[in-house]
Amino acid sequence: MVYCRSCKKSSSERKGTALERSRLPPDKAVSVLDHVREGVGVRATSRLTGVSRDTVSRYIALAGDQAKNLHDELVAFSPSDP
Questions:
Q1: Best CA proximity match to 52, nearest among 75, 81, 32, 72
Q2: Which of 38, 50, 75, 76 has its CA 20 to 30 A from that of 67?
Q3: Which is nearest to 53 in space by CA: 36, 39, 77?
């Protein structure tokens, strides 16, 4: 948890990331996403990391949504092609 001195509120340091509501330990969640990034399939990632296929699929969806939002934000500020 991170505490804001100006507004006196606390929030998770994962807020706004693909790991926002993750129940997996951080190293295992990052390992799942690293395997997916390297092109390893869902079943193989599940087997290698020791999590269920549904968990791998959920993390893929979360990371994909996060990547889409970031892409849309960056494209909005990029200069147009003449």
A1: 32
A2: 50
A3: 36
